[in-house]
Write a structure and sequence with these properties.
Blueprint lengths: L1 H19 L3 H12 L1 H6 L1 H7 L4 H9 L2 H10 L5 H16 L4 H15 L3 E4 L2 E4 L3 H4 L4 H20 L12 H7 L2 H18 L7 H10 L9 H16 L5 H23 L7 H10 L8 H7 L5 H15 L4 H6 L9 H5 L3 H14 L16 H45 L2
Antiparallel strand pairs: 1-2
Helix pairs in contact: 1-22, 2-7, 7-8, 7-10, 8-10, 8-12, 14-15, 14-16, 14-21, 16-21, 16-22, 17-18, 17-22, 18-22, 21-22
Length: 424
């Protein structure tokens, strides 16, 4: 059955992937994200250790003063991926167009920072500062847009010979620095105009504009299981195109928080939990990170392709602890047509199956007063919070997602393995 499904998927996805593989923009996005892997992989174990779900360990880190240091390391790495992505994507696009990658990447980073709000309100005063969220989750989609638009404009202007002509006797290092001066002037005039025009809108800046526009489609969703599935399916969809899921889920968080508080109140009063099914579905559709990639990481650990096998094995342990950036950027999954279907529907399909299980066995309850660190493996957390019934449902959801990813993984593995053979 899987062989037939794989062949069918490959006949549909293969030609599309082949065509898209020649697209310079998509290639730059994928290659640039892969170049950011040393950052996400390099600190993944630090992220696991910092949030390891054992209370004595967390207290030990805090007592020796190491906890704050580790959190600062994560804040400057995983929480600022937009900075690294804007540089690497711009660099790869410039390379594809035979332009100076370092110059283009530097200009693109400068444009990204210029568009960012430079002040933060603290009480009644404003201080000069950059919001870390704009450098990380809230800024990733903006970074992707800028990292393509600026290099494209740079290439366009360069081909119009809008460059400072210097004698051949001028050293290469000097000419590389000075020749694009007119192009950079035009770029900064344009970006200044864009920044100024945004001040006349209710958004005030491009970052708020993107966050608001993304948030609006989910503002009307409620606290039903179907709304929950819809929100996280939409978050998967946005993340596939590079919009960090926090831009979607953060808007929905007040709903989940209110539902959890209602459950805690009911539990304390000895009453049935009003949103028990809601949270059982939540743990079914959101385990091992957005896109539920634990099964994919496990499959990749046994891939024929050396690249995919390396990515799978390196990302498996972080993925167990709900850190899946290494595999999302390492394959990559973002903007990769092969993984569109399983990544986007990795919440919908197990969510529907879990709802079916609950209808058969009845309401599954849990202890809402148990609070565990976010890095606690979801399968383990489900057994702790809800016992055997909840644990089994989450295990089934994980297996379903593994099977969902399998035929698409085989297509990607076959293609990657063939490319490696061709390059030998």
């Amino acid at each position: 059955m899987f062989s037939l499904l794989q062949e069918k998927m490959e006949s549909i996805i293969g030609p599309l992937a082949e065509k898209l593989s020649k697209n310079k923009t998509l290639n730059a996005l994928q290659a640039g994200m892969m170049l950011s892997m040393p950052v996400s992989l390099g600190v993944s174990m630090i992220a696991v250790l910092t949030n390891f779900p054992v209370k004595p360990w967390l207290e030990f880190l805090s007592n020796i003063g190491l906890s704050s240091v580790l959190n600062e390391v994560l804040a400057a790495s995983l929480n600022m991926l937009a900075i690294y992505i804007v540089v690497t994507i711009a660099y790869k696009y410039a390379q594809a167009e035979n332009e100076n990658g370092i110059v283009v990447a530097t200009l693109t980073l400068a444009v990204f920072l210029v568009l960012m709000p430079q002040t933060i309100a603290v009480g009644e005063e404003s201080i000069s500062a950059l919001k870390s969220s704009n450098l990380g989750s809230d800024g990733i989609f903006v970074a992707m847009i800028i990292s393509i638009v600026v290099p494209k404009l740079y290439v366009f202007l360069s081909k119009k010979n809008i460059k400072l002509k210097l004698p051949e006797s001028v050293p290469t290092m000097v000419s590389d620095s000075l020749s694009p001066v007119f192009v950079s002037m035009i770029l900064f005039i344009l970006v200044t105009a864009i920044k100024y025009l945004f001040t006349f809108t209710s958004y005030n800046n491009i970052f708020t504009f993107v966050s608001t526009v993304v948030a609006q489609p989910i503002m009307s969703f409620g606290s039903s299981p179907w709304a929950l599935i819809g929100v996280y399916t939409f978050a998967n969809f946005m993340w596939f195109f590079g919009i960090h899921p926090s831009a979607v889920t953060s808007v929905y968080r007040p709903v989940t928080s209110a539902a959890m508080l209602a459950c805690i109140g009911a539990f304390a009063a000895g009453e049935p939990l009003p949103y028990a099914t809601f949270f059982v579905i939540f743990w079914s559709i959101f385990n091992s990170g957005t896109g539920n990639t634990l099964g994919l990481a496990l499959l990749a650990s046994f891939a024929k392709s050396k690249h995919l096998r390396s990515v799978g094995r390196l990302s498996l342990i972080p993925n167990i602890f709900n850190i899946n950036e290494p595999i999302v950027f390492g394959f990559p999954i973002i903007m990769n047509p092969i993984f569109f279907f399983p990544f986007v529907f990795s919440s919908l399909i197990p969510g529907v199956i879990s709802m079916g299980i609950i209808k058969v066995i009845g309401t599954v309850t849990f202890n809402p007063t148990i609070s565990l660190p976010w890095a606690t493996p979801t399968i383990i957390a489900s057994f702790i919070k809800g016992g055997l019934a909840l644990g089994i449902i989450v295990v089934i959801a994980t297996l379903v997602n593994t099977l969902l990813y399998y035929p698409f993984f085989k297509i990607a593995d076959k293609r990657a393995y063939q490319e490696e053979l061709n390059n030998q």
